[in-house]
Design brief:
Keywords: Amino-acid biosynthesis, ATP-binding, Kinase, Nucleotide-binding, Threonine biosynthesis, Transferase. By secondary structure, the protein is an alpha+beta fold. The chain has helices at 9-16, 61-73, 114-131, 144-150, 160-177, 218-229, 239-252, 257-283, 297-309; strands at residues 24-29, 37-43, 47-52, 91-93, 96-102, 185-188, 197-200, 203-207, 214-217. Helix 3 runs parallel beside helix 7.
C-alpha cells in the first residue's frame, strides 16, 4: 500500500475547510503510488485527489503548481490544483507538502488501442505547442549530462557486453547532440507512460503525475511516449500505434528538420535513460519504501531493438 503518511478523519476534514470544496464524506488510500502518499477524497460536492509529497526537492513544487495551472488555463486535460480561499494551492498537512486536485475520470490503459493513441498524440502535440511559452524553468534532471555523469555507478553490476553497450551509446549521443542544431524547448511531462494517463473509454480523461516535469527538448518527451505507448513486449515498434500517435501529434506540432534528423537517436537515448534509472534503483539507490522496482531489462530490450532496427518512418 503506497500510503506512507496515514491520516485520520479529523485531519482530512480540517484540511478541506481551507478550500471551497464541500464537507468530507469519505477518503481512502491509493495503492498505486510509488513515491508520494495519495488519497481519494469524496465530499458532499465532488471527488478529489489529495497528494502528500514524501520525497524529492520540495522547493521545486511551485514549478509543478505553476505548470499545471498554466496547462489547465489553456484547457489541456490536466488536473489543475485546487486553490484555497486565499488563492494558494501548495499547502502543508501532517508535516508534508500537500496538494489537492480534482479527480479526473477514467483509468490507465494497459494495452492502448489506436483511438487512445490518437487522443494522447493530439493532447501531447497541443501541450508541447502551448508549453513553449510557459515562463517557468526547471532543468531536465535526466538529460544527456545526467547519463554521462551517472552511468559509471552501475557499470560494475553489468556484463562486459552491457558495459560496452552503455558506454558506446553515450559516446554516440555526445557526438550527435552536442554538435546538433538546438532543438525546440519547452515544459515537458518527462514521464508520460500509459499509467500516467486516464481514459474513459477512448476519451482521454486526463494526463497526471507531472512530478518529473521540467524544461527540456520537446523531442525527448515525445520519444519517451513512443517507446512506451508504441512498443510491443519484444521491444519492437508497433507501426499502427506509432503512426496513430505521431500523426495526431504532428498535426498539432510539426517537427523541425533538426528534430527529424535526431529522432532515431532520441528514441535510443530515452530508452537508455530508463534502463539506467531502473538499474540505479535496483543496485545503487533503492526506494525508501518497500516497493518492487521496475525491471531494467524492459528498456535494455527496447534500446537493443532501436539500435538494430532504427526508427519507423515518421507519418506524412
Amino acid at each position: 500500500m503506497a500510503v506512507f503518511t496515514p491520516l485520520n478523519d479529523a485531519q482530512v476534514s480540517g484540511f478541506l475547510e481551507r478550500f471551497d470544496v464541500g464537507s468530507l464524506d469519505t477518503f481512502e488510500g491509493v495503492a498505486s503510488g510509488t513515491e508520494n502518499t495519495t488519497y481519494f477524497v469524496t465530499t458532499d460536492r465532488q471527488s478529489l485527489v489529495l497528494t502528500l509529497f514524501e520525497q524529492g526537492e520540495h522547493d521545486e513544487l511551485p514549478f509543478f503548481v505553476d505548470l499545471l495551472d498554466y496547462l489547465a488555463e489553456h484547457r489541456l486535460p490536466v488536473p489543475g490544483p485546487v486553490h484555497d480561499r486565499q488563492g494558494i494551492a501548495l499547502q502543508s498537512l501532517a508535516g508534508k507538502p500537500a496538494l489537492l486536485f480534482p479527480r479526473l475520470p477514467g483509468k490507465s490503459p494497459k494495452q492502448p488501442n489506436l483511438a487512445q493513441c490518437e487522443a494522447l498524440g493530439d493532447a501531447l502535440g497541443r501541450m508541447h505547442f502551448i508549453a513553449q511559452r510557459f515562463e517557468g524553468h526547471r532543468p531536465n534532471p535526466r538529460d544527456l549530462h545526467w547519463l554521462l555523469a551517472t552511468h559509471h555507478q552501475v557499470l560494475g553490476y553489468l556484463s562486459p557486453e552491457d558495459q560496452a553497450l552503455m558506454g558506446d551509446e553515450i559516446d554516440t549521443y555526445q557526438g550527435a547532440f552536442e554538435n546538433a542544431d538546438s532543438l525546440p524547448q519547452g515544459a515537458i511531462h518527462g514521464d508520460l507512460f500509459r499509467d500516467n494517463t486516464l481514459f474513459d473509454g477512448d476519451r482521454l480523461g486526463g494526463i497526471i503525475d507531472f512530478y518529473n516535469g521540467c524544461t527540456g527538448d520537446l523531442l525527448f518527451d515525445l520519444a519517451i511516449v513512443i517507446n512506451d505507448w508504441a512498443s510491443d513486449t519484444d521491444g519492437s515498434l508497433n507501426r499502427e500505434r506509432h503512426d496513430a500517435l505521431l500523426r495526431a501529434y504532428l498535426a498539432r506540432r510539426p517537427l523541425t528538420a533538426s528534430e527529424r534528423q535526431c529522432w532515431p537517436l532520441m528514441l535510443r537515448m530515452t530508452a537508455l535513460r530508463y534502463w539506467l534509472s531502473r538499474l540505479l534503483v535496483v543496485y545503487v539507490d533503492p526506494p525508501a519504501h518497500e516497493l518492487t522496482p521496475h525491471d531494467p531489462e524492459q528498456f535494455r530490450t527496447i534500446l537493443v531493438r532501436r539500435i538494430a532496427e532504427g526508427a519507423l518512418p515518421l507519418p506524412g
